[in-house]
Amino acid sequence: MKNRRVRISGAYVFVLLLAAAVGLAWIFPDPGARGGWLHTGVSTRVAVFLIFVMQGLSLPTQEVRKGLVQYRLHMAIQVFIFVFIPALVYGALVLSWRLFPYDLYMGFLFLAAVPTTISTSIVFTTEAGGATAVALFNASLSNVLGVFLVPLWVSLQVSQKTPIPPLGTLIFEIMLIILLPFALGQVVRIWVKPWADAHKREMSKASMVLILLIVYAAFCNSVKSDIWRSLKTHEISLAFVSTLVLLLLVMLAGRLWWRTAGYEKANGIAFFFSATQKAISTGVPMAYAIFESSQISVALVILPLLFYHPLQLLMGSFIVGRLSRR
Predict the structure, then answer these.
(1) C-beta separation of 238 from 305 below 8 A
(2) Were 220 and a residue from 32, 34, 97, 197 both cysteine, which residue would form a disulfide, CB within 3.0 to 4.6 Å?
(3) Which residues are CB-contacts of 86 (< 8 A; sequence separation ≥ 6)?
(4) Verdict on whether the full-model pTM lies above 0.70
(5) How far apart, in whole angstroms, are the C-alpha atoms of residue 224 and residue 25?
(6) pLDDT (tens digit, 9 = 90+) per residue, 209-244?
(7) % helix / strand / coil in the chain, to the nearest 5?
């Protein structure tokens, strides 16, 4: 019980730091904007590289292999992440697209296809008494599949009036910024496994700091370009409420899927937390790779994800408590 409090409280601290990073960008946008002394055009790319090297270092490969045998469960989780949630969001936006500016509209479509978290889904699954090997396998698989499926989904949805790089270019770039450093981390782990396991918490904290830098840079550029002046307060509020409703619907659907499929408790818990979470550490770098060269604001694209992330931590920690007491 004590360890769970420490982990969850750490997640809450990260939520507060995310809000602080956004606030800092509003007050001091110059350092993180293009041409600022932080040189975020280079530093954010280095940050992304280091994040995925550390994820590769910290991921126990043998535990992932244990989950290979349950292919039907894995298929169900990936279908939920990359088919059900995008279909749900697309259907909702068909009915409500006039309510959102185009950049926010694309933000919700982007959020729909973002893969699951590597850290939070595993922690929640473990603490609730679920099958950790299943969560590990699907966290890894969804982030690999996301390299190909997220740019494909976005390229199918983006307006022809808003050009983005060709699909092949996007996939290649995302492979370089996500798969290459992740694979490098996995290879290095072969020789430094004891050290990597002993410093997993430190690498997690370092990744959080690097994510804060990336978020800060995105909002600095949006503040300097005056993109927020075109947004009304009720549009931001509506985006937050819509994200909350989406999360509740996704979690309700995940629970119904679990019960309908008849998974045993451990596998059901792994399904629920693997299928309903969204990874800010993967989503933000992907958004940069896809939208940075377009006229779409990266800050507005990642805004629904920035809302979804703390909400999933709050809801997830509450659900973990309930499941662990049963």
Answers:
(1) no
(2) 32
(3) 109, 112, 113, 153
(4) yes
(5) 9
(6) 888 888 888 888 777 776 677 677 888 899 999 999
(7) 85, 0, 15
User: Which pair of structure tokens corresponds to residue 70?
Assistant: 């349950």
What secondary structure, in 3-state letters, does 96-143 show? HHHHCCHHHHHHHHHHHHCCCCCCHHHHHHHHCCCCHHHHHHHHHHHH
Residue of 196, 215, 297 whose CA lies nearest to 47: 215
Distance set, CA 163 to CA 59, 89, 155, 191, 295 (Å): 36, 22, 9, 44, 8
What SS3 state is found at 292? coil
**C-alpha gyration radius of the chain:** 19
- Name residues whose C-beta falls within 8 Å of residue 301's C-beta, 6 or more positions apart in sequence: 103, 106, 107, 110, 287, 291
pLDDT tens by residue, 55-78? 888 877 766 666 667 789 999 999
What are the angstrom distances between the C-alpha of 305 and each of 17, 183, 287, 320, 323? 15, 25, 10, 21, 26
Q: Report d(CA 33, CA 298) in Å as an integer.
A: 13
Average the pLDDT over 310-324 and give the result: 85
The dihedral sign for the CA sequence 267, 269, 275, 280: negative
Question: Residue 174 corresponds to which tokens in the numbers above?
Answer: 């995302």
Tokens, residue 44? 């954010």
Amino acid type, 113: A
